[in-house]
Amino acid sequence: MLIAEPLQRAIDELSKLPSIGKKTAQRLALHLLKSDKDAVESLVDAISALKNDLCFCEVCFNLSVEEKCDICKSPKRDHSVVCVVEEISDVIAIEKTNEYNGAYHVLGGVLNPLSDITPDKLHIGELIKRIESGGINEIILALNPDAEGDATSLYLTKILKEYPVKVSRIARGLPIGGDLEFADPATIGRAFSGRIQL
User: Fold this and answer.
1) Is residue 63 within 8 Å of 37, Cβ to Cβ?
2) 131: how many CB neighbours lie within 10 A of its CB?
3) Containing domain of residue 145, as a range?
4) What's the predicted TM-score (pTM) here?
5) What is the structure's pLDDT at 134?
6) Coil, helix or strand for 132?
7) pLDDT tens by residue, 64-85
8) Is residue 41 located within the same domain as residue 92?
9) CA-based nearest residue to 109, from 143, 154, 140
10) CA dist list (Å): 153 to 124, 148, 158
């Protein structure tokens, strides 16, 4: 079937987005085609602003519209506690819980020698400089519980032993509402090893 070139181009571009296949891209493109011009221009402006108006915070590497992000500027946050995460999406997920009131440090990935991601390609040096500048009492490692996340946590733990900071890692185990019978052995094992006294 021959599709008009502008529509095909929109479908091709939309299908490059994560989790968007060709059929979903076609539905989105057709929806945009049916939408009024103001709605489409508003979407284009929002997407353009992502690239033009956002930058990385000079302190924690979270997204920001200024040199420092709102979290790093906030006097209501506990800047003596820094939660180390892999990506900006992790900051968003943690912030949604309203359980954490400290600062963050976004590594920009995790160690993965097979993909040529070495310590110098992550924001580990900047984390060390933050600690050396003083005022940080605790580092919370909130990296994904997979091989790369575990390797990065182990690497950071070894480095941070040289500094007078408490190093902890977020607990891992069964999710709320999860059934033991459906959990994998590694998750159950971590739930037991990370148990807390009542």
Assistant:
1) no
2) 20
3) 76-179+185-191
4) 0.82
5) 92
6) helix
7) 999 999 999 999 999 999 999 9
8) no
9) 143
10) 11, 9, 9
